[in-house]
Give the backbone structure.
Amino acid sequence: MTIALTGTHATLERDGLTLPLMYYRPRGAGPFPCVVLAPGGIEGGLFEIFEWLGSRLAAAGIFAVTLSWRGSSPLHDPLDVSAVVDWIGEQSGADPQRIGIMGMSRGGMASLRSAALEPRLQVVATFGAVTDMIQQVRGVAVYAPGRYRMLIKWLGGEPDEHREFYETIQAISYASRIKQPVLLVHGAHDMHCPPEQSIWMKRELERYGNKDVQLEIIPMMGHYGEVVPNSYDFDRLASVIVPFFVQHLRA
């Protein structure tokens, strides 16, 4: 299936870093609140992943920017997010005082880490986020050995061999530092990254005193927004995520 992209291509260039971007600018003069969209995947990310949300955010009066990653490793993902936040501050019509972030899968992990490290992010939402990478990799070893091999190749080794690296990249390690409002959305039928990953993250955020954490488990939905048996329900996802950003960023 070919997805028609309605956003505008741009390129971020800063201090030797080059990141392709796609932005969705609302109609009007602004200044508009902004949302960084962080894609999943184990490479650079695809703009098609967030067409469904970028277009809907723009229609709701929010300037949305889908980023791409500098490389395969998730280690520097928060630095890429901060670079995009810098870029937003240079754009006509964008309000750098009202910025949120939304990520899927790897991008969800990066969004939560970025919320802990980047004070300019005021709100964070995720869908299908990997939050405890150590458990994720260990858990997949038995029921999906091929995926397990792919993950440890991507991450440079098994959790016991590279525990410090895993603890650095996994979102749950940063729970004590995330004070922004958080929305965690997960498909109940997510077999790639089970909904327990968001359930555990909510528990940890609340344990460290964050009282503004919402968890939405969507019945029959998988990791990519697919719904059993044979469709996608991006309208359902957007109905939860877009109002969350409107509520927290439009005031």
